[in-house]
Amino acid sequence: MTRPGSTERPLRVAVVGSGPAGFYIVQHLLQRPLAVEVDMYERLPVPFGLVRHGVAPDHPKIKNVIGVYHKLALSPGFRF
Q: pLDDT tens for residues 18-68?
């Protein structure tokens, strides 16, 4: 399904920041019935924001969300 008024081009969305909020919106966009392409931009050389850098090592359950982010990053229509 494509966006209303268009039969060819998908909706193109840019997400700035690859932390939890950025991946939350990516997940929301990619689950829509519309054809969506998402470009994610991050100024740091690695993704996941504070989940990667700000969570203490003794909280592994919180860091497990990185696996969900990896799956989203492999989705068709997603570019980092």
A: 988 999 999 999 998 889 999 999 998 888 887 877 787 788 888 788 888
For the sheet containing 36-41, what is the strand order? 11-16, 36-41, 78-79
DSSP state of 33: S
Give the span between the Cα atoms of 23 and 73, in whole angstroms.
Answer: 9
- Least Cα distance to 48 among 75, 16, 22 occurs for 22
Q: Could you identify the residue written with the tokens 């990516």?
A: 26
Query: What is the Cα–Cα distance from 13 to 62, expressed in whole angstroms?
Result: 27
**Is the pTM value of this prediction over 0.85?**
no
Q: How far apart are CA 35 and CA 57, in angstroms?
A: 38
Beta bridge partners of 12: 37
